[in-house]
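Two folds, back to back.
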Amino acid sequence: QVQVAESGGGLAQTGGSLRLSCAASGRNLNSLVVAWFRQSPGKERECVVAFNKVGVTAYTADSVKGRFTISKDNPKNMAYLQMNNLKPEDTAVYYCAARSAYGFIWSNHSHDYTYWGQGTQVTVSS
């Protein structure tokens, strides 16, 4: 059974950085398509950054372009979200999402992803 679990959230100051980690288990990461989503109170869950099936960044939300990058380490079965120049509006619960890469290219829609972590809170103070 595939599971993903996030870690690395916390409190940061405006302009600071955080790196979130996503640990995948039950399946090799190179057979999964991974994306990061976030949700803040009263707002819909939105895709922040998404890989395509060959591990290239396929989507980056306009609000985080130039500041957030996604990466992964297949041997470690880990994916990461590096967040730089954080802003108060980045405050949200961040989720790692994954799904089988078979027959799939990429998506920035939450309903296309099968496996979800429990989320990790990121709070950016002004």
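---
second:
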Amino acid sequence: QVQLVESGGGLVQAGGSLRLSCAASGRTDSTYTMGWFRQTPGKEREFVAATTWFGLNSYYAYYADSVKGRFTISRDNVKNTVDLQMNSLKVEDTANYYCAAGQRGRNYIEPTSYDYWGQGTQVTVSS
């Protein structure tokens, strides 16, 4: 089992920045795909960013088109954390943000590819 705990959400004005952090514990694995998703009431969970392992200490980062160039995902396998730096925030970025972990090789965009989820952290961007 892997436990994930998100932190760093809050209220910010449009154009501002927030940094989300996800702390992993338990049976962590540096080859796991780590992802960030977001969800608003009445909508399905939406892919935001993911980092996937492709050998040794190398990882790819993937982003949804809506956040590309504004968000950056990073991971620290020593601290077992995955961060999401969010810059130039927009009102439409308002959502509950979730951290997720899953075995490598799956479709990182699909929520069903992930085995473990955090409880989420709320991000609210005001105009």
